[in-house]
Design brief:
This protein is of the alpha/beta class and 481 residues long. The chain has 2 domains: 387 residues, Rossmann fold; 92 residues, Immunoglobulin-like (Sandwich), CATH 2.60.40.1930. Helix content is 24%, strand content 26%. The strands form 7 sheets. Strands 9-2-10-11-14-17 form a 6-stranded parallel β-sheet, with helices on both faces. The chain is globular. The relative contact order is 0.12.
Length: 481
């Protein structure tokens, strides 16, 4: 076995919304990783009511984040994630790091690999301040005890974790201590899926849980910040629109202000010579080619969402990872860059895709070489949209009694395959894995699923051609109730 590469910097993993275990009085009140949400709602029951954010701040502060939910989970219609374990193992298996607890380690302990669980209900501004506090403490101790007094922090941020990181780096001036920020499916410009969830909920059984989510400032900070909501034939921003059903206008305005604080800080820093010469790099990992909500229309008091781009947006920016639109996963200041960090993968699995992990390993390895100026890996690549890709259209949740059809489209493959295969693996259900073939249906492929018991499942789709010219496999999770 090859020797591990010495990690000179401090690495921190930040999860997305709902991705941290929450405790009250030392007992878990949010920890259903690897469990179907329907089963969790039945078993956790009244404890979930404790998650509601109240006007009494002291009551909110009694809930603490204890650890990352490393296994698979999903909130149908809002967020889903197929585990943080793969990215953690990548770091620990390939790099010489000292794991630590970012909250509980004693002052004299020097560690350089941390998870950052946080209370994902709260305003991301407050979470960013908490991140700043603990990074300052841990980085100082690592520099003091390590042979590299110039060590910096490397942030690996999934989804909403990237927004927290950006606020810390830009508004709170954390850029001076950061080498690089990787964002995996971060909605830098927001997600239409979040708007749909807040306004319309997700299927009937999730309505009670939706009411809970609507009390969270963080959920509003996932709303789109660009003009994508059509009202009376004109596109406008969510925060500039009144009477959206179930959306608190003041919370939406404050959420837009959160994003504008980041944008204003970036603009200010562009004139800072030190920032330009030695500031951190951003490497966005962007999911593409998946059916993704892009716009909405408000008419007669009803919000309707669509996969159609607003007419003022270039059609080349269509698609996304099924949760975060392609155009939103790119930080605003990188709008004109096409970096080789794009992958035809779903939001739930982008952080564990083998190609993403390989690129992450190579870049982290390069960053540990002294005096290397270029750390961002491959540069601009405008060819990525033309690569072979599998696009997967499916729901987060299905009733056990309904006919389940999953559709797929294969792009840019030159028809160099004969079959499209699916592997369905149970996560929470007592069932055996199934291998099923898609059936051709004109320009699409359709998969019909029968006889699955209720539970959470993982789906992997790939062609029978596994050569380097074939599209990479696509992965997602779904639940049967």
């Amino acid at each position: 076995m090859a020797s591990k590469i010495r990690m000179q910097d401090v690495v921190v993993i930040l999860p997305g919304i709902t991705g941290s275990v929450l405790q009250k009085d030392g007992k878990d009140i949010w920890a259903f990783s690897g469990q179907a949400l329907w089963q969790a709602l039945k078993s956790w029951g009244g404890s979930l009511e404790q998650l509601k954010l109240l006007a009494d701040i002291s009551s909110n502060n009694s809930i603490k984040a204890s650890r990352l939910m490393v296994n698979t989970y999903q909130i149908p219609g809002l967020s889903k994630f197929d585990g943080y374990s793969a990215i953690s193992h990548l770091i620990e298996d390939n790099f010489d790091v000292r794991p630590g607890n970012i909250y509980e380690d004693p002052e004299d302990k020097a560690a350089n690999f941390y998870h950052f669980p946080y209370d994902w209900r709260q305003d991301n501004r407050e979470t960013a301040k908490l991140l700043q506090k603990h990074i300052n403490k841990r980085l100082h101790q690592w520099r003091k005890c390590n042979v590299n007094p110039d060590a910096k922090v490397i942030l690996l941020a999934h989804s909403m974790g990237g927004l927290i990181s950006r606020y810390y780096l830009e508004v709170l001036e954390g850029w001076r201590d950061c080498k690089v920020l990787f964002t995996f499916g971060t909605p830098h410009r927001g997600s239409v899926k979040s708007l749909s969830y807040l306004a319309n909920g997700y299927k009937e059984y999730c309505l009670d849980f939706t009411e809970l989510i609507r009390t969270f400032p963080s959920a509003y900070q996932l709303l789109p910040i660009y003009k994508m909501l059509k009202v009376g034939g004109q596109y406008q921003r969510v925060a500039e629109t009144d009477n959206i059903p179930n959306v608190d206008g003041e919370k939406a305005k404050d959420a837009l202000a959160f994003h504008y604080e980041i944008k204003a800080a970036v603009e200010k820093h562009k004139t800072d010579e030190e920032y330009k010469s030695s500031g951190y790099k951003i490497i966005p990992v962007v999911g593409i080619q998946q059916p993704t909500l892009q716009s909405a229309e408000l008419a007669n008091g009803k919000l309707t969402v669509s996969q159609e781009l607003p007419t003022w947006i270039d059609p080349l920016l269509a698609g996304g990872d099924d949760t975060v639109p392609y155009l939103s996963a790119i930080p605003i200041e990188l709008s004109n860059d096409y970096r080789d960090t794009y992958i035809a993968e779903k939001h739930s699995s982008i952080q564990k895709h083998s190609q993403v992990l390989t690129e992450l390993y190579n870049r982290l390895q390069t960053m540990q070489v002294n005096n290397l100026e270029e750390i961002s890996g491959p540069g601009i690549n405008r060819e990525v949209i033309g690569k072979p890709a599998i696009s997967l259209s499916m729901d987060d949740l299905y009733w056990v009694s309904e006919k389940i059809e999953i559709r797929a489209t294969v792009f840019n493959s030159a028809k160099n395959f004969r079959k499209l295969n699916a592997l369905i693996t149970p996560i929470s259900a007592d069932a055996n894995p199934q291998k099923i073939e898609f059936k051709p249906d004109n320009d699409e492929w359709v998969l019909t699923i029968k006889d699955l018991v209720p539970g959470l499942y993982r789906l992997q789709v790939e062609t029978d051609n596994l050569s380097s010219q074939a599209p990479t496999p696509v992965n997602d999770i779904f639940e049967i109730v």
